[in-house]
Amino acid sequence: MPKNNVKILVSNDDGIDAPGIYALVNELKKIGNVIVAAPDKQQSAVGHAITMNYPLRAHKFYKNGKYFGYAIDGTPADAVKLAVCSLLKEKPDLIVSGINHGANTAISIIYSGTVSAATEGTILGIPSIAVSLTTYGKPDFKYAAKVAGKVAGMVLKKGLPSGTLLNVNVPPIPEKEIKGIRITRQSSAKWHDWFEARRDPTNKEYFWLTGRLVDKEKQSDTDLYAVENKCVSITPIHYDLTDYKMLESMRKWKL
What we know:
single chain, 31% strand, 255 residues, alpha/beta, two-stranded antiparallel ribbon, globular, 7 helices, nine-stranded mixed beta sheet
């Protein structure tokens, strides 16, 4: 497909002014026409929430004096749904969500607004990709953007099965230290959470969620193992949550 005919919708969950989305847009402009529709503020870990009981508003957002895209006062899924259903004249050929500042591996996938923006794309019948840089420290999105462009080009060429998106996680290290790209499965590691009790300046108690990943698998085919061993992880995931093995077992329950 010629570059001039390729339409790519970009969204995220860190907000339209985040540096990750800016790096992603600049890279994807090399392969197509990019349209941005992203939350107007930080929306990390909102999952696949959508707005039903309040109006959504979209306004044009300018970066460095130039039009950048639509800022949506909703969730990542809202941004994608509103763009595809109302703001765009034509359905995009591809949706790319990111580049997220932080990992979206293991159980974090289910909480991720970044992944949910891409998931909404698959629900709308559009090939979609979620991209994350696995650090909460000072980020350098250059290599992650390069990977996103490479994967986007391949998806435009090969396509994706209905309902399947690609979840890409890039280690926060220089490109020369990357040991390769691995096709992985979602790790079963999960968060051990707790809430720290604190006091505000008026001495009122509040709680701050914190935690750490536990039960990390040692198998080398997981997303978490890949990024911890200096490899880019690409995981095909699907929004169908049916447990098919249990489904067959339950059919014998004679309820």
